[in-house]
Amino acid sequence: MNSITAIIADDEPLLRHHLDKSLSEVWPDLEIVATCGDGKQALEKIVQYTPDIVFLDIRMPELDGMAVAKQLVQLEQQPLVVFVTAFDQYAINAFEQNALDYLLKPINEERLEHCCQKLQQHLHAKSNKQAPDINHLLAQISQLTPKQQQYLRWIKAAQGDDIHLISTNDVLYFKAEEKYVSIYTDESEYLIRTPIKELLQQLDPDLFWKIHRSTVVRVAAIDKVTKDFTGRMYVKMAGHKLAVSRAQQGLFKGM
Fold first, then answer.
1. Model confidence over 111-139: pLDDT tens digits?
2. Which domain holds residue 106?
3. Assessment of whether the complete model's pTM goes beyond 0.85
């Protein structure tokens, strides 16, 4: 019997690693034949390996997940698609009936186990039922994607008497400090008055994670995650060491 194969496509290396590691724990027999960092590479690997399953991030450079899924319809042997997304639960309900399954970021292990069980049942059933209608699913998702344009790209922040325009791509992390929130970059530190809770609602959840009640980090800036002898977890980035609350350690489970 041939093994079940899968491809993971996500532009964040940390998230690719996390999903790969978690899948190896909840579905040891699943063979990950490739991991990809953009949609163009994902499509090439799908054509090359003809996997049974593709874990497909909706937002990626080159080709986004929606564009990749649309092209999969043209393949003679279509893989089962599991969308990986930062859409909230309410938004997911609008199209979940038309996808085989979906995973919300950050990925919960119990939810991943449920997803894998659903995939296995579908693959083992070998019924004549048609696969979920990808075109219908994409039409549903396209109604939700304008929300993505509302996320902050630039932040006005103070440094002394000067006002600076900071790109969110340059941010390492945000830290709440009494009445202010400090913005840390590679080069300097800035201040804004926006409460951290309000700020978090304006940041792309694909790119920024809350690791502590007072700390939000840019995921791509993380160098590594460590634990001390007490089990306390820390994120390290560009010379900074930031504590991860116990409640948020699940973000890095299995890494």
1. 899 999 989 988 887 544 455 556 665 66
2. 5-148
3. no
